[in-house]
From TrEMBL:
Species annotation: Luteimonas vadosa
Stated name of the protein: Glutaredoxin family protein
Superkingdom classification of source: Bacteria
């Protein structure tokens, strides 16, 4: 089972859209990590959020993604 992490920001419209895609794709559990105020995460993800990371595989899916593309990425 993948360990999914959604890196996001507070008050981020694109992050809200990514959450909708995750719900539509019926993604099981995932963790939300807010990068605001974390210098290391800001440096890594600052301009790229939202980013979905499969920690088990070490893979990241950057926005934009849709539910079909997300399902393919998860099943790969």
């Amino acid at each position: 089972m993948p360990i999914l992490i959604l890196y996001q920001r507070d008050d981020c419209h694109l992050c809200d859209l990514a959450l909708e895609v995750l719900a539509h794709a019926r993604v099981p559990e995932f963790d939300s990590v807010f990068i605001d105020g974390d210098d290391a995460l800001e440096a890594r993800y600052g301009l790229r959020v939202p980013v979905l990371r499969d920690d088990a595989r070490g893979l990241e899916l950057e926005w934009p993604f849709d539910s079909a593309g997300l399902r393919r990425w998860l099943d790969a």
